[in-house]
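Researcher: I'm preparing a figure for a lab meeting and need a structural model of a single chain. I don't have an experimental structure, so a prediction will have to do for now. The sequence is pasted below. Please return the structure as tokens so I can convert it later.
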Amino acid sequence: MTIVDGQIESLKKLKEILNQNGITRFNSIGEIDNFIKNYDFEKKVISKQIEHTLDLEINDLQSDLIKHQQVYDNLKAEITNKVNTKIKNLKDKINLIEERSKNNLIKKIFFFPQLAILKLKKSSLEKNFEKIIHKKTYVAEHQVINIKQKLDDFSENKEKIILERSLPSHEELAFTKEVVEGLYTLIAGAIGESLVVKELQKLSDNYVLFNDFSIELNPPIFNRKENDRIRSIQIDHLLIANSGIFILETKNWSKESIKNLDLRSPIKQIMRTSYALFVLLNSESEYKEINLNSHHWGNKQIPIRNIIVMINEKPKEKFKYVKVKSVSELNGYITYFEPIFNDAEVKSISDYLRMNMH
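Model: Understood. Here is the structure written out token by token.
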């Protein structure tokens, strides 16, 4: 498998922008792609999860209602029994005193205050029977009432409650979708570059792949033909092979984009990069830094081949110095060339580039 160094540029930018917006749920392009495809389904899942949670709450409340109703009923029965017992005891005392004093005036006078107090207590208990029961069972009764009110509210307003509870998650989901849709170009680029990396990884470990390769050129390289002073270069994918170096630029373009005159020509872009890299690697000063085996005819040149990888559509035209390939054609084209460097030389070129990467 190809040795891979670095992360693709569009994916780095994508993660950076998502993090700036507080979106950390995505770990890959595949997850972003699935999110876009399953957005409506995910909204429904959120509502279903909220509904399920609400149903569990209702079940718990129903269980609590049974328990608290039992506590209330038992407490009410206990208090009722105690009050009735007190009334009965008072009635028995009153009857006993009246029985003892019914034929004796002196006893009637003697027991009159006590009898009056007992009758007053009995009357008070009988008169305030319900109030006493209510006061003693108030807390337990209100626990039952509160649970019943919650259950009634859940039953009558279930859809409204689900909607209200789902709203924050739906708003977060909508915000994520809005941000992701605004990054369409970056996502398309990341998808395309990811496909290219996956394809190149099918090659053997004799190949070294640099993703998002960039280098500062000091002093800058001057291209007289284009009157262009090149101070830095950036490459989507730079592949080091036994047959030389391949510059790969990935474009996930539609037919309309290919025909769009406002879009910068990828041919010019890759030719500019290729020129600078060729001059850098084959210049006398830099060439000495790379340990290449000598040939009895002279110093070996490091060839650079330019490939534009089109993910969707590609033009039918052929172009000078640049090959336009689909992903499926890529590895066949790369492996077509005869090796001119051994593995140690490939490592030396790779180490030099890695050391000078920006």
